[in-house]
Design brief:
The chain has 412 residues and is of the alpha+beta class. 60% of the residues lie in helices and 12% in strands. A three-stranded antiparallel sheet has the order 1-3-2, covered by helices on one side. A three-stranded mixed sheet has the order 4-5-6, with helices on both faces. The radius of gyration is 47 Å and the shape is rod-shaped. The protein starts with a helix and ends in a 6-residue tail after the last helix.
């Protein structure tokens, strides 16, 4: 409905406004007649005819008293709009208005550059209010007071800084702030990863900038002037955070994989250690052969030693194959982890590989020792059977020929 008042003003030829009213005395056009008829139906809150309209043939005269409330206001220019509309500093939509100098009605297409900048500043207030830790309306509706906090430093406690979002005509002379970054952060309701952390980083960037503002300066003007520094500081901090988070994630991934494969190696060796408990049985059987005088009894003991040895050697071979499979899986896993990683992650991976290789080599050496221990009773038992029950072998063993054969020395 405020548009009807503006149309009346335009149809009257945009006359001068004196004491909050404009007058017309001249020819009546169809456009002007339609505007007069539309304004007669408007409520007084939007203005009223203080005089007339008086028709005389093809002429008309009237005086229209403009409204001065939230229903709609006339302003000479954008500066007057800023001074007369403190609601701009609250980040809320402006009530209907008309700029006389620019012949612009709020909401029309192709707004002046100053109006577009004013819309950006109003959105900036709204976005900062969404990010601030707290906010209150400033006295006299002169914008908001937004609170940001600087974290505690070395020997200094946390510090609260204030941002008074009072928009002034001087703000229109400053560069237009780029709101793409803060818009993405403020309007992210947790949909993206680390949304809360990015909001905190942007609060920190704002607080650091405001902390450097001179005491006499308008904090909002100062923030607009330093806006490029604010977004730049946030970008650096965000990159650093993402880098550290990625490195920490890789560290946890490497640690988890290393512990898992270490546990697999330990489990494989645990099975082998349990099976080696049968070694004393073989040893006892071998000792029994040395004290047996009966060939059949000795052969029975030998068969028992051979069976136990065969089982132990089979189990040890199976454990050796298990170790090989664990190592192969480790190599494949860590090759995929190491692809495209930073130098810091590469150092962690190298350390994990070195520790795994040390454990693998140690356990593989133990398996070789266990294999020797498994063979020992078998070889001893076979020797004792021949030594006890074969006189020729017994005599040869006790002869000089055996000693020379062992020393690989020809017989004289």
């Amino acid at each position: 409905m405020f548009a009807n008042v503006v149309e009346l003003y335009r149809a009257a030829g945009r006359p001068a406004i004196v004491a909050g009213a404009f007058s017309f005395d001249g020819p009546l056009s169809d456009r002007l007649g339609q505007a007069i008829d539309a304004c007669k139906l408007l409520p007084d809150q939007l203005g009223y005819f203080d005089d007339g309209p008086d028709f005389a043939g093809a002429s008309v005269s009237f005086e229209w008293k403009l409204s001065d409330n939230e229903q709609g206001r006339f302003f000479t220019d954008v500066s007057a709009l800023v001074l007369g509309s403190p609601v701009i500093g609250l980040g809320r939509p402006l009530p209907p208005y008309y700029l006389i100098g620019d012949d612009f009605l709020a909401g029309s297409a192709s707004p002046p550059a100053a109006v577009e900048k004013l819309d950006v500043l109003s959105e900036l207030v709204e976005l900062l209010a969404a990010l601030a830790l707290a906010d209150v309306d400033a006295p006299g509706s002169a914008g908001r007071i937004l609170f940001f906090v600087l974290p505690a430093g070395a020997g200094s406690p946390p510090k609260t800084v204030e941002l008074r979002t009072r928009v002034t005509p001087q703000c229109l002379e400053l560069p237009v702030p780029d709101l793409r970054v803060v818009r993405a952060i403020a309007k992210d309701e947790g949909a993206s990863v680390h949304s809360a952390e990015h909001k905190q980083l942007f609060r920190l960037a704002v607080a650091e900038a405001l902390n450097q503002a001179p005491r006499s300066a308008s904090t909002f003007e100062y923030l607009i002037e330093r806006w490029a520094d604010v977004t730049g500081s946030y970008s650096v901090n965000a990159d650093f955070y993402v880098h550290n988070f990625s490195l920490d994630k890789v560290r946890r991934e490497i640690t988890s994989a290393a512990v898992d494969f270490s546990a697999r190696l330990t489990a494989a060796m645990g099975d082998s250690t349990a099976k080696l408990l049968a070694l004393p049985i073989s040893a006892i059987a071998a000792v029994g052969i040395s004290k047996s005088d009966d060939l059949l009894n000795g052969l029975a003991l030998l068969v028992g030693v051979l069976l136990v040895g065969w089982l132990l050697l089979g189990a040890l071979k199976n454990q050796r194959l298990q170790l090989a499979r664990v190592k192969s899986a480790f190599d494949v896993t860590f090759q995929s982890i190491s692809e495209g990683r930073s130098a810091e992650a590469g150092a962690l991976i190298s350390t994990a590989k070195s520790e795994f290789d040390d454990q693998y080599n140690f356990l593989y050496g133990l398996l070789r020792l266990f294999r020797f221990l498994a063979w020992a009773p078998v070889l001893v038992a076979v020797f004792l059977v021949f030594f006890r029950f074969n006189e020729g072998f017994n005599a040869w063993v006790l002869s000089r020929q055996c000693v020379d054969w062992l020393l690989q020395k020809p017989v004289d």
